[in-house]
Amino acid sequence: MPECCDPDDYQSVFSGRFARRQTKRYQRRGLTPAAQGIADFVASRGIERATVLEIGGGVGQLQVELLRRGASHVTNLEISQNYEAEAARLLDEAGMTDQVTRRFLDIAQAPDEVEPADVVVLHRVVCCYPDYAALLTSAAGHARKAMAYSHPAANAINRAQFGTENLYRWFTRNDFRVFIHPPQGMVRTAESEGMTVAFRRHARDWDVVGLVR
Ligand SMILES: C[S@@+](CC[C@H](N)C(=O)[O-])C[C@H]1O[C@@H](n2cnc3c(N)ncnc32)[C@H](O)[C@@H]1O
Fold it and tell me: Which of 20, 55, 98, 152 is most solvent-facing, going by the fewest CB within 10 Å?
């Protein structure tokens, strides 16, 4: 892996504490509005018996919802290994352990090691990865029917917040960075893999894009 994507950086940022916070938030308040947008779009395209590939799924709250709505199986790809205890607990409580395969793999680096799926989702992931073109090319290339991703809206508030976060990491000698990638560039990348935009939703500070093949 290039220096920009050192798994140790992801391990330190996406820690067990981060995982527990995500689970607690989900159990108290359900999906975030952006994640809800992804679930709504995917369901509108027909999720019944579909296979799902979730890239950077964290503890797996979105995939639990997609399975509830009728998906047959989810493969989750992660770089951080710190989500596993929380993910296992969520799946156990939902009775869905057998429907999810969890792997540690960066699809942008190893696209050939991942099977295609009917639906590919990435929620709050592209902003944690420097090379959006490589990530979304691989993601779209694995989507048989539909793909949806969320990204931070390219506005002044998000730019200030992401800039401050990166400055803090630079001061604390952590090489992990967050990114506000160009929205049109991301869409063009997915389009170049044969997909067409079919859905857009603005949800608080996040934008959701849904595409179909
Ligand atoms: C902000 S977290 C979001 C986790 C989850 N989707 C959520 O919304 O709670 C971003 C996650 O994406 C993962 N990630 C980033 N790039 C990835 C890649 N190329 N392959 C797999 N996981 C990736 C990171 O490890 C991290 O866990």
Answer: 98
